[in-house]
Prior knowledge:
Its EC number is 2.3.1.47. With 382 residues, this protein is an alpha/beta fold. The chain is built from 15 helices and 13 strands. The strands form three sheets. The protein has a seven-stranded mixed sheet, with helices on both faces.
Amino acid sequence: MTLPFDSRILDAVAKRERQGLTRSIRTIEAGNTPSLSYQAKTLTNFSSNDYLGLAADKQLSLEWQRGIDLYGNGSGASPLVTGFSKAHANLESSLCDWLGFERAILFGSGFSANQALLFSLLKEGDLLVQDKLNHASLMEAGMFCPATMKRFRHNDVEHLKRILTKSALVVTEGVFSMDGDISPLADIQKLTTLHSWLMVDDAHGLGVLGSEGRGSCDFAEVKPDILVVTFGKALGLSGAAIMCCENLGDYLAQFAKHHMYSTAMPPSLAYAITQSIERVRIQEWRRDKLNELQCEYHQCFSFLNGYVDTRTPIKPLLFGDNIDILHISKELAERGFWLTAIRPPTVAKGSARLRVTLTANHTIEQVRKLAKSIEIAMDKVV
Ligand SMILES: Cc1ncc(COP(=O)(O)O)c(C=O)c1O
């Protein structure tokens, strides 16, 4: 018997195919280094989020192994049962000390931290206001939570002001993941200070911006009410935390289901994240190197069609058309570069792009070669 699920699945996949939007999972060796291997080819990787080059850092691997020696393998339970160890407590203290918050609540991923916050805090009759380009985890939770959700035009503070007709939870990313631009946090906070809460998801700003890599909020001299930080990007590992005040921390520990009913992250991972934070804070040379690469990128790319000037290691090249971009990405792979084509629905219709990301482990020469290859690929395809 054919159930409605069968046709639903087949139709949806076929539609994606027709639109040129099919995604595929590819098995990659060493996707966390500047050179990766795929199908026996070595390609320079400009698509990771490993901004500070810590994901394959050998010293950090040794720290993680030490964490396993100290704490064993899995956490064995959710945090409220027996899964919360000294390693988790140390990580929370280290985050609070670094980022200047009273509490840190740990999660297995940034996706679950964002959803846990919106689902546990918001009730019917509340107003949730989000930047239009916020991450899918925030948008999806906003659609399914009982609050009324409104979206303001990307980084448009005047539009936000018009929408903010009553107390609300205002949510923005610090650095936007697909555009690499920075939210006008200081201006947003002026609107939220008295009657609303400001929540910033700083997945892509942490480690990269601000003093000791404290992120977008430090960079903008803003302290939001809620800060979500993730460990899978500049920190080179995985997991996330919600940074907040004592009262909200107590509340989340009672009501954030993704925290309460999910196995705590392995204690060895919590230990490794704590060590990674130490490196991010003191190894300024990683941010200096990124800045150097960014200057080179600007020199080499600013005359290209689709170039966008950003202050972060996320560098979009906007093309708009879903088909051309796949051809360009394939042509670049032939020339030894891995650059993922980013297409709708990840980004808005008509704004398909190549998303170049720089990491502290790239070389100036690699950036120069990429620029030359993109120019040739664009001439061939466009
Ligand atoms: C802005 C933003 N928030 C949250 C997440 C989710 O974080 P995680 O990968 O830890 O689930 C991502 C991941 O891509 C992101 O870009």
